[in-house]
Design brief:
The structure is a single chain. This protein has one domain: Sandwich (Immunoglobulin-like). It is 6% helix and 35% strand. The protein contains one helix and 13 strands. The protein has one helix at 15-27, and strands spanning 6-8, 44-51, 57-65, 68-69, 74-81, 89-95, 126-129, 142-143, 151-158, 161-163, 166-167, 174-180, 192-198. The strands form three sheets. Strands 4-13-12-6-7-8 form a six-stranded mixed beta sheet, with no helix packed on it. β2 and β3 form a beta hairpin. It starts with 5 loop residues before the first strand and ends with a strand. It comes from Streptomyces spongiae. Residues 1-39 form the signal peptide. This is Tat pathway signal sequence domain protein.
Length: 200
Amino acid sequence: MTPPTTSCDTAPKTGKVRRAALAVLVGAGLIVAATPADAAPNGGYAHRTVTAADGQTFHLRLAAGPVVLPSSGGTVRVAGTGYNRAQGIFLAFCVIPKGVKVGDPSTYTTRPTPCLGGTHPTTPVSRRITDADTGGGAPGLTLPYQEGGSFVTTLENVRPEIADGVVCGRTVDCAVVTRADYTATDNRLYDQYIPVRFTS
């Protein structure tokens, strides 16, 4: 897959997109209706519309929740739709790079890293989502896309310490992230961020 030619973000600008993203959250069981009705749910969303070099347009929507976790960590459920099934992605919990302004894809010029390590299939903190023939991939870690370039999964044991001295909310800001997998590491087309914070 060649690098993108056009990228725009419309989520902060339209109530319609916000409602659609929240519908993804509710439909995936990531959140329940807020009480009272105008309260903010404990979920986050991201959306961008991109046009690839081959002319195809993709409306990438990502939803995750909860996005406020205890300091001991927790599980985050994640749902996505509209992704390009011809390009695999990584889903992970990573540091937001310096210079990246979440919601402004024009600033998504640096690969999100470092990311929380650990690939045990029963408590995965990262996933690869791809339709490529990987020989089954890593059991429990590699998942196929569903219809419409969608997926629903979890990131387990999401915790604030990404690495020694790299602590979310103290030294860095962190987010649930999608990005192109190792077949297109330098392609920023599929970068999306949903910030997560931890209570003290």
